[in-house]
Recover the amino acids of this structure.
């Protein structure tokens, strides 16, 4: 029986050849080269063979009586069956048959060719996932197309539902058009909503403008919490200020100024002429007030130290002083040096 191989039209392909001894019919013949080979082929129903010249590029020895011959590009040019004969001296003639097709079984699954299947019916019964899948990866390619014949529908209604299942149209196509139109309306509405949202964002900002929360609501909660903390801190500051006011008073306690600093400045700027304390000229506000009442410095000193000056030197410094009273009364007599300073004090 001849081995039968598959070939693709007008395409070279390697085919297996087995050479055995011409006498016993089974001993492998080795060492045969392309020059030893006479090859012929014929198309189905031909009445004669056509010679095929084998060169070194079309012949390979695999070993153990097995060889490879390459043929097809210029020989298998019409779909159908071919016979190929390999005749080598000292070997039995080897014949094999070829089924030449426009597309091979491999081509049908390669995804690069259009293959026409002529079958009466394909019945797919699959219990493991999707039974039929169709997908296009080409430019503007459709994933699936079906055409009915005569009164038959493209897709049998009983298999996918009746037109009334999708709408009021007379056919599935009518209802799909309606659905598509509604989808377009929905898309237009989505665009309007998006525009409105952008307008709202323009007024209130997006969530990231207020914090790290996923939504404005999240960030408002965070902001509200921080505001509550700030209010609590203000309350704490108010308590501290009230405590400070309790210790130093408020601005109105010191004058008409708006702040304590204003009133302190006003106090510090008062002058002796106004019968008030001046930090740059007076030791005590009482001294300035007393002087304003025409009480002399000398009289004031006498009053403060409880002494009675009975006589004075020419520079008004005391010369004779009575200090104390009663049993403690003493008399102090002073002398001056040439500079008018008190030099000695004598007690009696």
């Amino acid at each position: 029986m001849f081995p039968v191989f598959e070939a693709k039209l007008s395409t070279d392909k390697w085919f297996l050849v087995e050479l055995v001894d011409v006498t016993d019919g089974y001993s492998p013949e080795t060492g045969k080269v392309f020059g030893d080979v006479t090859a012929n082929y014929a198309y189905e129903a031909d009445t004669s063979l056509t010679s095929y010249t084998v060169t070194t590029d079309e012949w390979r020895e695999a070993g153990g009586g097995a060889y490879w011959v390459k043929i097809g590009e210029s020989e298998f040019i019409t779909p159908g069956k071919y016979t190929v004969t390999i005749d080598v001296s000292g070997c039995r003639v080897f014949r094999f048959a070829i089924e030449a097709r426009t597309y091979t079984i491999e081509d049908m699954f390669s995804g690069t060719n259009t293959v026409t299947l002529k079958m009466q019916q394909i019945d797919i019964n699959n219990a493991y996932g999707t039974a039929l899948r169709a997908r296009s990866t080409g430019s503007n390619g459709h994933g699936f197309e079906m055409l009915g014949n005569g009164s038959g529908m493209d897709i049998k209604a009983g298999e996918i539902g009746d037109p009334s299942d999708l709408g009021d149209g007379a056919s599935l196509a009518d209802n799909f058009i309606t659905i598509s139109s509604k989808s377009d309306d929905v898309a237009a509405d989505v665009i309007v909503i998006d525009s409105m949202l952008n307008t709202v964002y323009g007024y209130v900002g997006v969530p990231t403008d207020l914090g790290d929360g996923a939504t404005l609501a999240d960030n408002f909660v965070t902001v509200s919490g921080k505001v509550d903390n700030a209010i609590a801190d203000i309350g704490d500051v108010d308590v501290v200020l009230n405590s400070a006011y309790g210790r130093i008073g408020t601005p109105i306690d010191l004058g008409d100024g708006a702040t304590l600093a204003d009133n302190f400045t006003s106090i510090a700027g008062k002058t002796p002429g106004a019968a008030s304390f001046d930090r740059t000229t007076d030791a005590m506000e009482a001294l300035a007030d007393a002087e304003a009442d025409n009480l002399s410095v000398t009289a004031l000193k006498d009053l403060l130290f409880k002494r009675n000056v009975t006589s004075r030197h020419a520079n008004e410094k005391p010369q004779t002083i009575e200090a104390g009273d009663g049993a403690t009364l003493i008399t102090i007599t002073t002398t001056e040096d040439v500079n008018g300073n008190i030099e000695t004090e004598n007690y009696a």
